[in-house]
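From the shared-data thread, chain only:
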Amino acid sequence: MPLNWRILAGSDFNCSAGREGGQVVQKATCFGQELRRRRLAAGLTLTALSNRVHYSKAQLSKVERDLKSPSRDFARLCDSVLGADGELMALIPVRPKHTKALHASDGEDVWLMALSGDGQSWFQPLESV
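Structure, as tokens:
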């Protein structure tokens, strides 16, 4: 049975293989695995890469082990240093800059949690615009 590889976008980063439609499918190429593969292929140690991207060796290690999610800036720097031609950036989910407003339907109330600078929080109803 042939392996069928694909990359998933978004926050569904599952690095394990599974079965789908009778075929073994690699669920995702995790950023950390790809970063490590490219770093080693470039002959760089964690220390050498950390010096080039100006992130700590500990940070790089956590990202490679998928213990910490990479930021877009981190991915961009690693992409540039490792000559990945945008392939590392493609593994980072794109977050929308703007979100759509919530609207109550069928007479339901929509509530928002408000947070103040001093740590207090409360709920308040979302008023229709």
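Strands lie at 4-5, 17-20, 23-26, 111-115, 121-125.
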